[in-house]
């Protein structure tokens, strides 16, 4: 429990920039308006859009809020705050089955453009799953960057898990083939695969992901296959655009949102879930191994609205 509490307080401080962006404005609206009218909703809308919730998500939240205000016959702006928080929470929910891969033989592919924290996320997840008693292996299938192979090797040592890798420039599908063969032979619980991050040439990326998928389906059809897109929270709406592009080339099960501690755009976590219907499964707020945690919508929204003392 201590660790969970520790993460929540780190989340609260990590979301400080986003919170200052949203909360100050919202509090001013709640204090500055004496009645709930068109202007009140318009100002609220503007603040949510500024926090990178995006237009569609913001519209959904405001409509939901208006409905509640009507139903509950609320007249005072100050009484709206909790309703607003609830409306935001309703835009994001992670299904109970979101982490089923932990309890079966699984292959997890992490995809995403370079520089978003993909290799680091593989390493952190490997360490956490290993600490939970799982037999974990990682595959260095981002063969286009020597640095990625070195970085993942370092994480594998740190997490004390096995790594399967080849030379820089090798065929990523060949690395996956070796890794899948080894994972089966050694009765591995979870195989985590780092992949190359090139979106500018979508055709190549698509072909590569297809090849990797074919290898997994052919060699280990009974394994649960999970594909997670890693996005950099500091890029706001750009992260949403990337998620859309990746969902066109792969069957995405979830999102890992990194670097939320350095951004005023934390609202993007809400926008992604609301607009794409793809759950944010993990969020990262720092460099340490336990700074990547399962996403909890309630905690996240509470952290956005919790004023730090």
What attributes does this structure have?
309 residues; alpha/beta; eight-stranded mixed beta sheet; 8 strands
Verbal overview:
- Helix 6 runs parallel beside helix 7 (146-159) and helix 10 runs parallel beside helix 11.
- The chain has 309 residues and is α/β, with parallel strands linked by helices.
- It contains twelve helices and eight strands.
- It has helices at residues 2-14, 16-32, 38-50, 55-71, 80-90, 118-131, 146-159, 172-185, 202-219, 237-249, 268-276, 297-305; strands at 106-111, 136-141, 162-164, 190-195, 224-232, 254-258, 280-284, 292-294.
- The longest helix has 18 residues, at 202-219.
Distance between the termini: 22 Å
Per DSSP, what share of the residues sits in E-state strands of 2 or more residues? 5-15%
Uncertain runs are none
Quaternary organisation: single chain
Helix content: 40-55%
Radius of gyration: 21 Å
Would you tell me the overall average pLDDT?
Answer: 88
Overall outline: elongated
Q: What structural class do helix, strand and pairing data support?
A: alpha/beta
Order of helices and strands: HHHHHEHEHEHEHEHEHEEH
Specify the number of helices.
Answer: 12
Main-sheet strand order equals: 3-2-4-1-5-6-7-8
Profile the largest sheet: 8 strands, mixed
How many β strands by DSSP? 8
